[in-house]
UniProtKB/TrEMBL annotation:
Originating species: Candidatus Scatousia excrementipullorum
PANTHER family: CELL DIVISION ATP-BINDING PROTEIN FTSE, IMPORT ATP-BINDING PROTEIN
Name of a matching Pfam family: ABC_tran
The UniProt record lists the keyword Plastid: no
ABC transporter domain segment(s): 2-224
Function: Part of the ABC transporter FtsEX involved in cellular division.
Protein name per its UniProtKB record: Cell division ATP-binding protein FtsE
């Protein structure tokens, strides 16, 4: 499903974020991207949803090279994936329901279909009973659940989570990772960048380790170290 071929990201000050990355991630996999701060995790994730473009090499998703995608095609790319951020990025003046519905209201589908998709996503993350709450009325863990519901409401084949537990305590971190694992069991490819070694060690998924922009380890059913 996803291929990185000779991908390098170099910045104007001649520093490298990524160096000659070659990776294959199959449909339905759950993959942890780990490494120290500055190892290149966030840059790799941003290449997937085209927040950044590589200096050289190709990034292919579903057979399409997205490395040099034109700006007008980026929205279509992102509709095919769900993105979960560390800082939630919720709209504070909207309810939980409207935060989740926001991303599909431009798709021209009926109100009944929107309601079915939103309530279904909220049930998956365990927030159906809080659909009328605002983000200010939720805990950090609950806000991240809203972020996950928003990411999956359109039924994407790929979910990208960049440090999804970075602002959470261990209990909430475990609950978020369990939800992501359940989503993966529905056949969705899940890629998680994290520095949370306890979560990585617990779930024993595929672990790709970056160091100074290079892949130094790629192991199935692995641990953080």
């Amino acid at each position: 499903m996803i291929q990185f071929r000779a991908v390098t990201k170099k910045y104007k000050n001649n520093s490298y974020a990524l160096k000659n990355i070659n990776l294959d991630i199959l449909s339905g996999e759950f993959v942890f991207i780990v490494g120290a701060s500055g190892a290149g995790k966030s840059t790799l994730m941003k290449l997937l949803y085209h927040e950044e473009a590589p200096t050289s090499g190709t990034v292919t998703i579903g057979g399409i090279n997205i490395a040099n995608l034109s700006n007008d095609k980026i929205p279509n790319l992102r509709r095919c994936m769900g993105i979960v951020f560390q800082d939630y990025k919720l709209l504070q003046n909207m309810t939980v329901y409207d935060n989740v519905a926001y991303v599909i209201r431009t798709l021209g589908i009926s109100s009944r279909e929107i309601n079915a998709r939103v309530t279904g996503a909220l049930k998956i993350v365990g927030l159906y009973n809080k659909m009328h709450a605002t983000p200010a009325e939720l805990s950090g863990g609950e806000q991240q659940r809203v972020g996950i519901a928003r990411a999956i409401v359109n039924g994407p084949p790929l979910l990208i989570a960049d440090e999804p537990t970075g602002n959470l305590d261990p209990k909430n971190s475990m609950e978020i990772m369990q939800i992501l694992d359940q989503i993966n069991q529905r056949g969705i490819t899940v890629i998680v960048s994290t520095h949370d070694n306890a979560m990585v060690d617990y779930f024993r998924k595929r672990v790709i380790t970056l160091d100074k922009g290079e892949v130094v380890r790629d192991i199935q059913a692995g641990t953080y170290e």
